[in-house]
Amino acid sequence: MNNEYSFRLARPEMANAIWQILEEAIQRRKSDGSSQWQDGYPNLAVIQQDIQRKAGYVLLDGDQLVGYCALLIDDEPAYQHIQGAWLSDQSFVVFHRVAISNKYIGKGIAQQLLLHIEAFAKENDILSIRADTNFDNKAMLRIFEKLGYQYCGEVVFRGSSRKAFEKILS
């Protein structure tokens, strides 16, 4: 993990800057031909709710905001109805809304963010990380493959079927 980057809870005053990064990511998904995030979700209210629930996390390069995600522990109702099977039935961290600043695209920052999520899980004595993504989000699918996430099946999230992945940490 690159020690230049810090990972911590987002603060309420960061909401607009986080939303700007998500807007960039929404546009990138569209440019990539993905249908993910093209329906008004996520939005600023979702980010504000993440922060209020203490689920919003930021990746910083010094004081520069470079990435965002939402982290939850054992809290994703859609995952109870997987078409397939999870690798484990233990406690898990789930991440959503991974977004990287346009200024940092192509620098491996999404991988850095996922490595910080792994460290967060271990700090909380959790050895399972779960996530889902659109079938057409090629960038995230490559990262999952590169970091050893295993495809477990499909979940329905907000009315759409999505690929579900899990990684068991050691």
Structure description:
This protein is an alpha+beta fold. The protein has one domain (5-168): Gcn5-related N-acetyltransferase (GNAT) (Aminopeptidase), CATH 3.40.630.30. Helix content is 29%, strand content 32%. It contains four helices and eight strands. It has helices at residues 15-31, 44-52, 109-123, 138-146; strands at residues 5-9, 56-61, 64-73, 83-84, 93-100, 128-133, 150-157, 160-168. The protein has an eight-stranded mixed beta sheet with strand order 1-2-3-5-6-8-7-4. The longest helix is centred in the first third of the chain and has 17 residues, at 15-31. The radius of gyration is 15 Å and the shape is globular. It starts with a strand and ends with a strand. The mean pLDDT is 95. Pfam families: Acetyltransf_1.
Secondary structure elements and pairings:
Elements: E1 5-9, H1 15-31, H2 44-52, E2 56-61, E3 64-73, E4 83-84, E5 93-100, H3 109-123, E6 128-133, H4 138-146, E7 150-157, E8 160-168
Parallel strand pairs: 5-6
Antiparallel strand pairs: 1-2, 2-3, 3-5, 4-7, 6-8, 7-8
Helix pairs in contact: 1-2
